[in-house]
């Protein structure tokens, strides 16, 4: 598994996690959506399931469900700043195309 979360992205996720007392970690995954096929998801995990793989990136607990795991291989999650906006950016080496708005991808 070569999913990576950069240190700056992990710090951002850690700050978000600290604001949610009920969350035990962050979920990273994919779901069918968008015009290209799949869309990344980022959510809080209040209780991991039996289908979750637990990972740790720079001290931040991250969970990926076993169905998303193959699609998250070779993905790097980074925090980017564009003007006044900050947001997570997913770089997927296995993506063969992305939609025009960058919200969905196909492999």
Primary descriptors:
three-stranded mixed β-sheet, globular, 2 helices, mainly beta, Hypothetical Protein Aq_1857, Chain: A, four-stranded mixed β-sheet, 107 residues
Description:
The chain is globular and about 35 Å long. The strands form 3 sheets. A 4-stranded mixed β-sheet has the order 3-2-5-4. Strands 1-6-7 form a 3-stranded mixed β-sheet. A two-stranded antiparallel ribbon has the order 8-9. The mean pLDDT is 87. By secondary structure, the chain is mainly beta. The chain has helices spanning 7-18, 69-72; strands at 4-5, 25-33, 37-45, 52-57, 60-65, 75-82, 85-92, 97-98, 105-106. The protein has one domain: HesB-like domain (Hypothetical Protein Aq_1857, Chain: A, Sandwich). Strand 4 and strand 5 (60-65) form a beta hairpin. The longest helix has 12 residues, at 7-18. The two termini are 16 Å apart.
Summed up, what is this model?
With 107 residues, the protein is mostly beta strands.
CATH level 1 class label: Mainly Beta
- Return the average pLDDT rounded to an integer: 87
Distance between the termini: 16 Å
What is the strand content?
over 45%
Shape: globular
* CATH fold naming: Hypothetical Protein Aq_1857, Chain: A
The major β-sheet equals: 4 strands, mixed
Low-confidence runs of at least 5 consecutive residues: none
Going by CATH, the architecture would be Sandwich
> What's the structural domain tally?
1
Determine the fraction of residues in helical runs and give it as a percent range. Answer: 10-25%
Structural class by SSE content: mainly beta
How would you name the CATH homologous superfamily?
A: HesB-like domain
